[in-house]
UniProtKB/TrEMBL annotation:
InterPro entries: DNA-bd_dom_put_sf, MerR-type_HTH_dom, MerR_fam, Tscrpt_reg_MerR_DNA-bd. It holds the Pfam family MerR. Coiled coil: none annotated. Residues 5-74 form the HTH merR-type domain. SUPFAM superfamilies: Putative DNA-binding domain (SSF46955). Keywords: DNA-binding, Transcription, Transcription regulation. This is Helix-turn-helix domain-containing protein. Signal peptide: none annotated. GO terms for molecular function: DNA binding; DNA-binding transcription factor activity. The keyword DNA-binding applies. The keyword Chloroplast does not apply.
Length: 135
């Protein structure tokens, strides 16, 4: 049985990543350069498919493209310690926790602003005054 080969459109459909994004990942080196059919179409392997799924999952966890490049590099070195991966995940977890803290503070401030509203007209709006720095 031969390996599954994907066109960029098929790969996009199977990975839920747009074709333009797949070509971009190829351009910046996250995905190896595709082979070409005789008619010039890009052709991707099952390994490319799995690599794109890795990238998509990593993006959904908030990793930057540079972080993903590093994680892919680590993943390609199967016999090395996973300490580098652990450190990268811990770093990302700290960033997520920091963002959550910031979002919670934003939520509290928005709740406070919302409670200031007494209805009426814009010229008497305490929210607009607060956002304008007038109070």
């Amino acid at each position: 049985m031969s390996e599954k080969i994907y066109t960029v459109g098929q790969l996009a459909a199977h990975t839920d990543i747009k074709s333009v994004t797949i070509r971009y990942y190829e351009k910046i080196g996250l995905l190896p350069e595709a082979t070409r059919s005789e008619s010039g179409y890009r052709l991707y392997s099952e390994a490319d498919h799995l690599r794109l799924l890795f990238i998509r999952r990593s993006r959904r966890l908030g990793f930057s493209l540079d972080d993903i490049r590093e994680l892919l590099s680590l993943a390609d070195r199967q016999q090395e310690s996973c300490a580098g991966v652990d450190a990268k995940v811990e770093q990302q977890l700290e960033q997520v926790r920091s963002r959550l803290k910031d979002l919670h503070a934003m939520e509290k401030e928005l709740e406070r602003l919302s409670a200031c509203c007494e209805g009426g007209v814009i010229m008497d709006c305490r929210i607009i005054d607060t956002l304008s720095g007038e109070t």
